[in-house]
Amino acid sequence: xxxxxxxxxxxxxxxxxxxxxxxxxxxxxxxxxxxxxxxxxxxxxxxxxxxxxxxxxxxxxxxxxxxxxxxxxxxxxxxxxxxxxxxxxxxxxxxxxxxxxxxxxxxxxxxxxxxxxxxxxxxxxxxxxxxxxxxxxxxxxxxxxxxxxxxxxxxxxxxxxxxxxxxxxxxxxxxxxxxxxxxxxxxxxxxxxxxxxxxxxxxxxxxxxxxxxxxxxxxxxx
Length: 222
Ligand SMILES: Cc1ncc(C[n+]2csc(CCO)c2C)c(N)n1
What we know:
By secondary structure, the chain is mainly alpha-helical. The chain has one domain: Heme Oxygenase, Chain A (Up-down Bundle), CATH 1.20.910.10. Helices cover 82% and strands 0% of the residues. Helix 1 crosses helix 11 (192-220), helix 5 runs antiparallel to helix 10 and helix 7 (107-122) packs across helix 8. The longest helix is centred in the last third of the chain and has 29 residues, at 192-220.
């Protein structure tokens, strides 16, 4: 079992509350109201701005070039790939990046992003990557679950672009690389005594992910 599988097993109910959230299921079924999805997407854009800072912090906290390059890949995935998806989707509804950026951050967005940033500020690179893991690896799992027959089978699905982004080969590779980098970091920096602390960080980040989906349902009455 790699470190990610161990963390997931130690936090299994929090993990399920995130990847099997009602928002995710309804998105997969195509029954999620578009208003809830839009609310999510605007907050997610604000979320990504803070996550880009967390990856920049991971570059700073790296003690060697390989760690710094792995963090740079995460930063580029956000700035060059993921945010483009949001700009493209929001653009269809007439929302410009400036308009999204001026939206106020919801408390759920603040809680999650600042928690991750604090894990990195107060801890070392392993703490930070464990706090980031539910986000980066969880979305790959969700993408795969929502596209069981591959991305091509999503033609006509209302959330095809979103699911296709995370189910697609490029993103699956980003997540697989993050997973093996996390395993490598743990082999270098983890002691068994530390595992319980890391599992608590991982569980909390998973709950904050679930709360992020729930925010969009609550705020739109979906
Ligand atoms: C609430 C929320 N959680 C996870 C992601 C996914 N994500 C955030 S940063 C990153 C790394 C590289 O792009 C990935 C995949 C998201 N967008 N929103």
